Amino acid sequence: MSESTRNLSVTPEEIQQGKTMAIISYFIFFIPLLMDDMRKNKFVMFHTEQSIVVLICYVISSIIASITCGIGIILWIPCIILLIMGIMNAANGEMKVLPVVGQYGEKFNLVK
Question: Which in 14, 46, 99, 100 has the greatest CB count within 10 A?
Fold first, then answer.
């Protein structure tokens, strides 16, 4: 899979100001979208994009689980791993794209 094509420059101040909200975005993705000052923070919006991708993966795996009478619950494990990786990246102040699915977050174009 290809890596992100964007070159995002984020200041250390943006990272410090947005670290908590970036972590929160992995639990409730729309909270940063409702706050105007956080919508301007590139660090927070990057992690919001990543959290939306993880949510979509979770929804798809839930649909598969319901169709296959619960066998697809195994697909939740990668979703949980991606969620933990995203939270750890946000807590460490890093803007790493999540493996396999993270590159699709760029399609949401939240980082301006």
Answer: 46
